[in-house]
Amino acid sequence: MAWWVWAIGLGAAVSQTDNPLLLLVALAVLGYVVTVRRTDAPWARGLKYYFVLALIVVVLRVVFRSIFGGAIGTADHVLFTLPRLPLPHWAANVQLGGPVSLENTASAAADGMRLAVLLCCIGAANALANPRRALRSLPGALYELGVAVVVCMSVAPQLIESIGRVRRARRLRAGRASGLRAARAIAIPVVEDAFERSLRLAAAMDARGYGRRGEVTAGTRRLTTGCLLAGMVGLSAGAYGLLDTTTPALLGMPTLLVGAALCCAGLGFGGRRIATTRYRPDPWQVPEWLVAGSGVLSAGVLVAASAAGIGSLAPSFSPLAWPGLPLLPAAAILLAALPAVAAPPPPVTRGAVSPLAGDRRVRARSPEVAA
Amino acid sequence: MIEFDRVTVTYPDSSKPVLRDVNLRIDEGELCLVVGATGSGKSTLLGAVNGLVPHFTGGQLAGAVRLDGLSTADHPPRDLAHLVGVVGQDPVSGFVTDTVEDELAYTMEQLGVPPEVMRKRVEETLDLLGLAELRRRALHELSGGQQQRVAIGSVLTGHPRVLVLDEPTSALDPTAAEEVLAAITRIVHDLGVTVLLAEHRLERVVQYADHVVHLPGDGTVLSGDPAAMFAVTSVAPPVVELGRLLDWSPLPLSVRDARRRAGAVRDRLTGLVPPPRIATVLEAPLLEARGIVVRYGDATAVRGIDLVLSAGTVTALMGRNGSGKSSLLWALQGSGRRQSGDVEVDGRDPKDLSAASARALVGLVPQTPADLLYLDSVGAELAQADRESGADDGSAARELLDRIAPGVPDDTHPRDLSEGQRLALVLAIQLRARPRVVLLDEPTRGLDYRAKQALRDVLADLAGRGHAVVVATHDVEFVASAADRVVVMGDGDVVADGPTVEVVVASPAFAPQVAKILAPLGFLTVSDVETALAGSQR
Predict the structure, then answer these.
(1) Among A residues 119-158, those touching chain B with beta carbons less than 8 Å apart
(2) Collapsed DSSP state (helix, strand, coil) of residue B142
(3) Spatial distance between the Cα atoms of A22 and A20, rounded to a whole number of angstroms
(4) pLDDT tens, position by position, B122-135
(5) Contact B143 A192 (CB under 8 A)
(6) Are A234 and A245 in contact (CB under 8 A)?
(7) I need a labelling partner for A249 at 20 to 30 A (CA). Which of A229, B495, B510, B518 fits?
(8) How many CB atoms are closer than 10 A to CB B70?
(9) Between A169, A203, A364, which is nearest B52 by CB?
């Protein structure tokens, strides 16, 4: 939980700025903390995929801005000019092709970077917190969702394993292991396998009492679902309204609050129907406070700084200038690196844990994985 | 405790019911063994106990199943979790958490057991099942036997009054299976839990049963005292078969019972020789392997094994889970890893050849045969096999399949075949390339006695046609009846290699029941005894 608060805090902080220097600082903090404090569990290796995804986001952002162009100031430096596509008059606001300026590209890149660092924040939380433990903190009303997520999380690594196994088996029939034709031959056994495993796991969870309902009436159940649905709609509409400045103010904060209230009510109703207990509740002590606090604090500082209008949080792109590094926000983001020391070091586990690693114990269970 | 009241289960797309008008009562504290051939409805019967059938499988259940008075029609499985614990064949597919302790606590968390009580029950269960040392270990690091014990423990902590086990030992080697069965009997005796158990390899469990439920395969169910029921069951372990052959009554259920009765038979058999099993004419070797080494990262799976396979022999490859059997087979076929050593078949090394030429030298049926099937009918798979093998001479694959398992219709979907039929289909596809060497990785998994007998005949037929056959398996009884030679692997090395009689009788873990009963005579199977006795009477 603490890690999620930390990551969301850092994400909120990052969303306040598109100063590339600050964003790079945040990225460095994320990378460092994850490297120092992650375990060697399979999910902990996920951060690099988030980095790749982040890079794609930046590139896409720049490419789209180049194609769809944008207003070009007179003082802008034109890098190159794309052929312009004439569009009918009703699409006059949309511009395809045309000159691409340095200023536009830089601002697109900075914008993309902000989104990218946000993604990496989520990735970091994923890598640091055991997803199954995080799932246990899920409110009772979301139990049905919980089944789906647990099944996904257990089956996904097995899916990779069975792809490997089926590809190897392809050679036994002298089939090709790559290409479009082979994709079908590999996909069908793999999907069938994954499907059966998912069903077995869902059945096993059910048989062990997952999602037991206490004494609830159908009415309460419907109320719960209704509240949650309406609340979710409210939350998404409100978030959109807040981020997009062109929508009426009513769609922003008020909708968000109503949505949040509805969700809480739904979760409350739903939580009452299920009585579960916790074997070893995750502790919430000094390290957890420090981890969560550092994230919240850096978010707070950046929000305050942006409200106070500290200039270098949103550097000027036109005219293009080298952004300055505002000291206070930078310090706040660096503060988020505190968990690298404050959080307890990961326990040393014996042997590799990945199901695909050539570990002896792993193979002892299923020779076909490694063979 | 468990009551089936005129239960009929029908699955969609099937004309006749799996279970028909079943009336059954199982009392508190019994160990009840469910026996029957594959497809006779064992899993359906077990699933119906806590309502997974039909809540999860679909289909229609008429009549009523009641547990302690609660009907499964009104209570879904999750609401019966405090009464019934279910453990399936593959423990890994049912694990929800990451570590042993968490998994043991999971059911209790769902049931809302107070934390202090949970602590106590986790400790008790760790001790009961001998898992105390493993409490903080990750589940996927454990061996198969340990995983299965954790799976049993994880449902026991909820203090269910009924434990349903669907083939809990079918994926385990003999030693791991012993571990699990010892844990189960301890539960029955110490806690008085009612246990409902289905198992293919009956020889391991018959002696512990208080009650036998027999499914003859037509949807009906017979139940009664073990010794009485086994006189009529369609499947029976070797100890019972021997008792039937010798007209013992009541039938013996354990090696101990049988050994005490067998004095007279041992005297009659002394001096008789078991029928010869090894092909006397040893032909030139078909496959020669020297110094095979297979490594994964730091771990060595196969450490420099030499192996020679001759035409006309069936070789069994045995050993613990993880002893390198699969790795060796894949290395011999040429598709798997091999860091050093050579394999020579017909003067060529399959590793250096294209996949198509390699499979014409050595055919391998992998552990999960379904991995090779991807078309939507048996006919299409067979036609594809004919095409893959080059020279298109019509229906050669079909002929092979008919020889191995006659009467598999062309338009069936491969997924709807029984385990045995699917194995036969993949074997036919692999044989279509006309390899002289045939390797099978764990083919006996999930096969009942009849299917195993059919497989044995197929292997003997292949050997008779000049193939060299290797079967990796845990199944001691199958090895005793099917193999001419046994190679035992341990930690990547060959531990023992020799004719079946010598290797199998030498160690109690690998000895079949008949050998244990008649030791020190070298008889391994009931049919050996039958042949010898028939010969002596003449």
Answers:
(1) 130, 132, 150, 154
(2) coil
(3) 5
(4) 998 998 888 888 88
(5) no
(6) no
(7) A229
(8) 14
(9) A203
CB contact under 8 Å between B78 and A210, yes or no, is: yes
Helix (H, G, I), strand (E, B) or coil at B288: strand
Distances (CA, A) of B518 to A58, B244, B528: 77, 16, 12
Residue B265 has pLDDT above 80, yes or no: yes
Q: What proportions of chain A, in percent to the nearest 5, are helix, strand and coil?
A: 70, 5, 25
Residues A246, A252, A254, CA angle at the centre, nearest 5°? 150
* Closest of A53, A35, A64 to residue A117, by C-alpha: A53
Q: How far apart are CA B396 and CA B431, in angstroms?
A: 10
CA distance A3 to chain B (A): 19
- Subunit contact A171:B335, Cβ cutoff 8 A: yes
Q: In terms of Cα–Cα distance, which of B366, B368, B348 is closest to B357?
A: B348
Q: Are A371 and A161 in contact (CB under 8 A)?
A: no
CA–CA separation, B202 and B238 (whole Å) = 9
Name the residue among A132, A200, A212 with its Cβ closest to that of B93: A200
**Is this prediction's ipTM beyond 0.90?**
no
Which residues on neighbouring strands pair with residue A10, listed in sequence order? Answer: none
The pair of structure tokens assigned to A2 is 């603490």
pLDDT digits (tens, 9 = 90+) for B350-402: 888 888 888 889 999 998 888 888 888 898 888 888 888 766 666 788 888 88
Degrees (nearest 5) of the Cα angle A107, A109, A112? 110
Question: Which of B120, B193, B201 is closest to B155 using CA atoms?
Answer: B193
* Smallest Cα distance from A175 to chain B, Å: 8
Cis previous bond, B250, omega within 30 = yes
Which pLDDT tens digit goes with each residue over B277-291? 655 455 678 899 999
The two structure tokens encoding residue B427: 């074997």
B112 touches chain A (CB under 8 A): yes
